[in-house]
Backbone:
């Protein structure tokens, strides 16, 4: 099939590349000339394991192309995926649909034959209706269907999530585009019966409800971890014990510094907004947002407690600053709140991150080290903020080389009893 992907960000680039890997002809379009030039030169603008190899292979074989010419790319294609950003408008809970509507207007002017217009970016329920309204002019009659096909890719696992999905959700209000989409996804759904068809609004809501539910699971276990800390039990045991019940499931029950990233914080807020629009009080999601927003304060307090409330001039080293492992993404990372608060209290911060230095930290008292051991050397406190594999078996005494240093493991990567045996001052979450 001939596919045009509009918006070559995270979702667009991964989806376009994977569709080309499945044998389709794909043009990935972006208005950012620099990005498209880089992609044509074989430079991948994001960090995603396995992506570079797939891009290069399919580009070489001519199935994957990059262009800044949106109009001609639309004309050449049968299926158009809208993958542009939908950031939250500052100081509101609302998703900004400016880019989605701009793209819809370009599509409207380039409908030279029947096309399926697929909304892949996460958009509030009823956005499909609005796109349809934009396209709906006389000369375009019967030349399009607007459908919803939300993405469920996790950063760092995106290729696997795309090629081996738990489910493919397609929302259409007519039969024809459903047939086309089923055919498109056939190579990855035929082994496992994971294709689910519903209405367009239904698919739009499945996406938000899924992210809202996962965010709830995380906030739930985080609050239970606050309690288990007080009553002297191990949150890991609680999560395992709960997860053994198949109705609950063990995944997404890891207590930690709170959820971050480009999806959960944005989508939970947009879900509340959708509830408001349709006069429905989504009180659970509202509470989840509050609970997650406050989490960093709890962890900050714990750091102060670990340092006996003497934070000034203490050397604190962060191991990982991104919102999770396997990505260079800093969006809504808990470290963005915790580190500046520690600086305000007079601490000096070193950090090491396998994905490199971050421009988010501009303060002179925050220093990146390209080597883990240089970052940790002579620290008063190590904070394991992100669960990168390379942090899972460290020889802390060799790294720090200082008496009485402390470790705060925000991801519960280590066995408490072993740490005690090794006479390390070890603190973790909910244990
Ligand atoms: C999330 C969803 O998992 C994807 O299915 C979805 O497609 C994507 O959002 C999106 O809407 O585009 P992602 O944001 O990449 O994917 O990251 P997750 O792996 O879901 O982690 C989100 C946050 O929750 C991270 O901060 C992570 O550290 C935290 N988390 C996750 C926990 O604290 N505990 C857990 O048990 C799991």
Residues:
């Amino acid at each position: 099939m001939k596919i045009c992907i509009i918006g070559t960000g995270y979702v667009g680039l991964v989806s376009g590349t994977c569709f080309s890997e499945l044998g389709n002809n794909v043009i990935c379009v972006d208005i950012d000339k620099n990005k498209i030039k880089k992609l044509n030169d074989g430079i991948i603008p994001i960090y995603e394991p396995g992506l570079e190899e797939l891009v290069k292979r399919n580009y070489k074989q001519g199935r994957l192309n990059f262009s800044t010419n949106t109009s001609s790319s639309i004309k050449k294609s049968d299926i158009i995926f809208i993958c542009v950003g939908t950031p939250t408008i500052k100081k509101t809970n609302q998703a900004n649909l400016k880019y989605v509507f701009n793209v819809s207007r370009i599509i409207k002017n380039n409908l030279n034959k029947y096309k399926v217009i697929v909304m892949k970016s996460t958009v509030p329920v009823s956005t499909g209706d609005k796109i349809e309204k934009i396209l709906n002019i006389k000369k375009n009659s019967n030349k399009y269907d607007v459908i919803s096909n939300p993405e469920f890719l996790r950063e760092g696992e995106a290729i696997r999530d795309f090629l081996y999905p738990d489910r493919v959700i397609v929302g259409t209000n007519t039969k024809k585009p459903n047939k086309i989409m089923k055919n498109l996804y056939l190579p990855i759904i035929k082994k496992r019966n994971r294709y689910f068809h519903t209405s367009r609004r239904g698919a739009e809501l499945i996406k938000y409800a899924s992210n809202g539910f996962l965010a709830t699971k995380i906030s739930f276990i985080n609050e239970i971890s606050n309690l288990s800390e007080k009553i002297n039990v191990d949150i890991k045991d609680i999560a395992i014990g709960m997860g053994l019940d198949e109705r609950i499931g063990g995944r997404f029950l890891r207590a930690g510094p709170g959820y971050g990233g480009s999806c959960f914080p944005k989508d939970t807020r947009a879900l509340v907004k959708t509830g408001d629009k349709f006069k429905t009080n989504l009180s659970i999601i509202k509470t989840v947002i509050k609970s997650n927003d406050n989490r960093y304060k709890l962890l900050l307090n714990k750091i102060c407690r670990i340092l006996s409330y003497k934070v000034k001039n203490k050397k604190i080293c962060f191991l990982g600053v991104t919102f999770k492992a396997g990505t260079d993404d800093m969006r809504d990372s808990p470290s963005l709140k915790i580190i500046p608060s520690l600086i305000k209290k007079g601490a000096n911060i070193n950090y090491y991150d396998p994905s490199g230095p971050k421009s988010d930290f501009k303060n002179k008292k925050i220093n990146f080290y390209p080597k883990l051991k240089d970052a940790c050397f002579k620290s008063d406190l190590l904070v394991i903020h992100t669960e990168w594999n390379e942090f899972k078996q460290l020889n802390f005494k060799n790294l720090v080389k200082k008496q009485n240093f402390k470790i705060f493991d925000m991801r519960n990567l280590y066995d408490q009893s072993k740490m005690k045996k090794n006479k390390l001052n070890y603190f973790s979450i909910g244990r």
Q: What stands out?
A: The pocket of uridine-5'-diphosphate-glucuronic acid is lined by residues 122, 151-155, 211, 214, 218, 252-254, 256, 259-261, 263-264, 267, 323-324 (CB under 6 Å). The mean pLDDT is 96. Residues 200-230 form the longest helix (31 residues). The chain is about 40% helix and 15% strand.
